[in-house]
Write a structure and sequence with these properties.
The complex is a heterodimer. By secondary structure, chain A is mainly β. Chain A is built from no helices and ten strands. Chain A has one domain: Rieske Iron-sulfur Protein (3-layer Sandwich). In chain B, α1 crosses α8 and α9 packs parallel to α11. Classes of the chains: A mainly beta, B alpha/beta.
Chain lengths: 104, 411
């Protein structure tokens, strides 16, 4: 089942950056790439539950601010020590200037 | 069969190294030995959240189950008393001996103690471990008169925590300003201003001549003759690397356990990491430095673990440090004293970010004091520029419209 949720305005996220989105009891990270593609993952690092939205986006990588663990945010893949568990990713679409994510 | 690897000191560096050995795929015995009664915990919150929070909570790095599931034997309340280098084993305070294939010294540092003929030692408090923090928390209460000796990071964080709990706080600093070591004057001034705004009294250029116990608590006599009464006197005058064990084992010592770029001591089977060791920093012309910083303890714990398993990785991470005071954060990447030229960039909310360049125009440090959300990513980018030995155009550094990411790509 799909469950599309309005996360934020598309222009609230800068190019090649990330923004935190809290919904219900969960927190997510929404990314915008340099070429204006949007992606969404779980908001907390799988190493020690730190908000990834405070980290740095370079190309399609999000770097955790705590111990610099890296994930490919387009696939959620953990890139190696100290992060080993992948991030969950969510479908994203942009409609009428709003970023929508499907929480399923 | 290999006897396995042994780590002395169950602090930040030791605990990280133990987990890193497993992350690297090592499946032999790993023993982590700590003198403190508690499982490894984080020290940074001890001067901050542990004092200001609703209740006191020890910020553990990992619980029993995580050590068990990683198959790390973590011994607490046990001190390593001797190293038998020829026999490759350590002796413990409980009489046991444990053989090692590779040994890691991660013994950390302890608080430097005030010394002098007129210093009454029991009248002075210190902060290094969880027990200290819990004791101080009970003393730094509303209305208490608190005197902090030393305007360094620990002293200032404690001052901020105490004043936030309603104490009356005075900080005495011997130098002409706070944070003389490693923080540019303009940034130190901004931090001083934030403390004054909170009501902290800062007395710089004042030596402490005497500390005496009184019925109230203690009194402190300054070099100008003034006498200050206080309920609590805390000294935050630096840390001393714990080299006792290494020195007794005949390892080379030089402002800490002396290691090479691969964190190997003068004995090829023994490594050292964290606050206890001094190392030549490849990014700064091989200059020998010792850091007292959380991330360095983690980075060196990781590097030491890899090298204990046969790698030959040089530790060349950019030094990085943060200090939370009030709602603001100080972050420093690099070594601010490695250059003279300072370039300022004003971030979107007006927080100044200061870059330091050396004589050749190489970026050697970046420093800012402001909201974490404003400064963290910028300092991280600066850190990556420093790691690349970049020589960015000072005009571009000063111009906030020039994204540091773009400078990094061009470097
Ligand atoms: C109050 C406080 C606040 C701090 N805040 C910050 C901050 O905001 N930012 C930052 O970057 N850094 C901060 N630091 C510094 C940071 O905590 C240290 O750099 C880090 O803890 C160093 O890790 P380490 O493993 O080298 O040493 P430690 O964490 O000190 O661990 C060493 C351990 O070894 C044990 N040990 C020593 N000898 C033996 C022996 N012979 N046998 C068995 N065990 C032994 C000790 O008991 C100790 O538990 C702070 C430190 C303190 C004390
Ligand atoms: S918390 Fe993210 S890498 Fe450790």
């Amino acid at each position: 089942m799909s469950n599309w949720v309005d996360a934020c305005a598309a222009d609230e996220i800068e190019a090649e950056d990330v923004r935190r989105f809290d919904h219900g009891d969960s927190t997510y990270a929404i990314y915008r790439t340099a070429d204006d593609k949007y992606h969404a993952t779980d908001g907390l690092c799988t190493h020690e539950l730190v908000h990834l939205a405070d980290g740095l986006v370079m190309d399609c990588t999000i770097e955790c601010p705590m111990h610099n663990g890296r994930f490919d945010f387009t696939t959620g893949k953990a890139q190696g020590a100290p992060v080993f568990v992948d991030l969950k990713t969510y479908p994203v679409k942009v409609e009428n200037g709003r970023v929508m994510i499907d929480l399923g | 069969m290999s006897p396995g690897h042994v780590i002395v000191g169950a602090g930040e560096a030791g605990a990280r190294a133990a987990f890193a050995l497993r992350e690297q795929g090592y499946d032999g015995p790993v023993t982590l030995i700590g003198a403190e009664p508690l499982l490894p915990y984080e020290r940074p919150p001890l001067s901050k959240r542990a004092i200001t929070g609703e209740t006191f909570a020890v910020p553990f790095i990992a619980d029993k189950d995580r050590f068990a599931s990683a198959n790390i034997d973590c011994l607490t309340g046990v001190t390593v008393t001797d190293i038998d280098r020829a026999g490759q084993s350590v002796r413990l305070s409980d009489g046991a001996a444990i053989a090692y294939d590779r040994l890691l010294l991660a013994t950390g540092a302890y608080a430097r103690r005030l010394a002098g003929p007129e210093i009454d030692d029991p009248a002075v408090d210190y902060l290094r471990d969880a027990a200290d923090s819990e004791r101080l928390r009970d003393k730094l209460t509303a209305g208490a008169a608190v005197l902090v000796i030393g305007g360094g990071f620990i002293g200032l964080e404690l001052a901020a925590s105490a004043v936030q709990r309603g104490a009356t706080v005075t900080v005495v600093e011997a130098a002409e300003r706070i944070l003389m070591r490693g923080v540019p004057a303009a940034v130190a001034d901004a931090i001083a201003a934030r403390h004054r705004l909170a009501g902290v009294r800062l007395l710089c250029g004042q030596q402490v001549r005497a500390v005496r116990k009184t019925s109230q608590g203690a009194e402190v006599v300054l070099s100008d003759g003034a006498t200050l009464a206080a309920d609590v006197v805390i000294a935050g005058i630096g840390a001393v690397p714990d080299t006792d064990l290494a020195a007794r084992a005949g390892l080379e010592i030089d402002n800490g356990v002396k290691v090479d770029t691969e964190l190997q001591t003068s004995d090829p089977c023994i490594y050292a990491a964290g606050d206890c060791c001094s190392f030549p920093h490849l990014l700064f012309d091989g200059r020998r430095i010792r850091l007292e910083a959380w991330r360095n303890a983690q980075d060196q714990g990781n590097t030491a673990a890899r090298n204990m398993l046969g790698s030959a990785d040089a530790h060349a991470a950019v030094p990085w440090f943060w200090s939370d005071q009030y709602e603001l954060t100080l972050q420093i990447a690099g070594l601010a004293d490695a250059g003279e030229q300072v370039v300022q960039r004003d971030l979107a909310d007006g927080t100044p970010l200061r870059f330091t360049l050396d004589a050749e125009g190489r970026l050697v440090a970046a420093c800012a004091f402001g909201p974490n959300a404003t400064i963290a990513k910028e300092i991280r980018l600066a850190e990556m520029l420093i790691a690349r030995r970049a020589h960015p155009d000072p005009a571009a550094l000063a111009d906030p419209s020039q994204n540091l990411k773009a400078l990094l790509r061009a470097a």
